[in-house]
Amino acid sequence: MIELDCRGLPCPRPIIALAKALPGVAVGELLAVVADDPAARHDVPAWCRLRGQEYVGADTADDGVPRHTIRRLS
Amino acid sequence: MTSEPEVYFDSASSTRLHPAARDTLLAALDRGYGDPRRLHGAGRDARLLLENARAVVAECLDVYPDEVSFTASGTEAVHRGLLGLAEASGRRGVVHGAVEHSSVLHAAAWRPHPSTSSIPVDRHGLVDLEALARAAMAPEVGVIALQAANQEVGTRQPVDAVDRPAGVPLLMDAAAAVGHGPLPRHWDVLTASAHKWGGPAGVGVLAVRRGTRWSTPFPGEDTPESPGFPDVPAALAAAAALQAVLAEAEELGRRQFAWIDEIRATAGALPDVEVVGHPTDRLPHLATFSALYVGGDEVVAELARRGFAVASGSACTASSLEPSHVLAAMGALTHGNVRISLSRDTTDDHVRALCAALGDVVLGIRRRAGL
User: Fold this and answer.
1) Domains of chain A as residue ranges with CATH
2) Which residue ranges does the record assign to the UPF0033 domain (chain A) (predicted)?
3) Which has fewest Cβ within 10 Å: B24, B104, B251, B342?
4) Mean per-residue pLDDT, B183-193
């Protein structure tokens, strides 16, 4: 699984990183973004809804920073 | 920089003083300086002006004059109103909508209580009435707080449809809605803020219906009116503005509603732009949208460069790092957010120019981000 390190990046940079990384992920595969920006927990699910991808859920990276995982659907 | 004067699209933050308020304020500054509690002539003059202001506001809100109090701000009106209801009954639980103004959220969080709860909203920002009714049944709930309309996305709340247990009063924050069409009626306490309708800043309104139990939660006399010296000229100017605004509201509201439809359609037609807020059950003068891959600060700055003053609920435009709790509660995109709010002097040309600029602005920012 590709994991994007967006620690320290303000919104909307983590979402832009997601969008740029998506073409490199096969349909059905997972893509994760690690981001401490508090907007990410709202904006990753919203991005999935707007772009027709699946929001799988949130957990935390080893250092406790939130990690959001999505699945490419199209 | 543009050489044109700035077009003000942020009346929902604060509205330019209404001409009727300006004239009244200037006259009242000369006559309303005395202490309205004194028995001398200057005191009597100030008292007359203050009672006149109260009577006019009461008529505008369709309440009795003795139900109207002036406070130092809309925020203070909410704090006094909400906490005073809880104080009177001794029941400290507060049930409120998730998209209420921060003054409601702060007052509810001030004295944490197990029955205090925030009621979720749907995608349009409409509160879940069933969840609200259930939460209001919890023990020790002393207040329900529900706004007339939302300050960020314009959605009107179904205040009159709230099913509340007997003896639980409802506070309606009407700050965003006063002057923009009919208000719900089923409330016990109403709060509002004069600078939102074209009055001066520093005047809040706290209306407490007769028969409602209210006790001061703060030091001072046990009355809803703020302690401290009243700003009589500002209260009178606020009343004059409200009267003038209501006289214009129907015609102006019709025009603004159509312009907002146009702005919503223009923004919504851009790729990856989400228009936020109820499409029809909304304030007439306010549109909000969020653009994917765009920073709220970038879009505000780019519109400012082109001469348009707008607001944003995105985190990068806020004093905190947190994005708007309203957008978050609605599940809306919180970045790239823009709020457009029209004024009484907005023109067709202003709206056309804004609509013509939106696409360029959003697509230009995305292009520079490499998208």
Assistant:
1) 2-63 (3.30.110.40)
2) 4-28
3) B251
4) 98
Identify the residue whose tokens are 């000369």: B30
How far apart CA B209 and CA B205 sit, in angstroms, is 13
**ipTM, 2 decimals?**
0.95
Instruction: Report residue B130 as tokens.
Output: 């069933």
Of A10, A19, A47, the CB nearest to B371: A19
Going from the N-terminus, what domains does chain B have, and what CATH number goes with each?
7-15+249-368 (3.90.1150.10), 19-244 (3.40.640.10)
- Structural tokens at position B246: 């209501």
Residues 6+ apart with CB under 8 A from B320: none
* B139-149 mean pLDDT: 97
The token pair that represents B208 in the structure block = 């407490």
- Would you state the pLDDT for residue B3? 61
Q: Six-digit token pair at B190?
A: 């109403």
Residues of A in contact with B370 (CB under 8 A): 16, 20
DSSP B169: -
Record: contact B334-A46, CB cut-off 8 A: yes
On whether the CB atoms of residues B295 and B357 are closer than 8 A, the answer is no
DSSP, collapsed to helix, strand or coil, labels residue A31 as strand
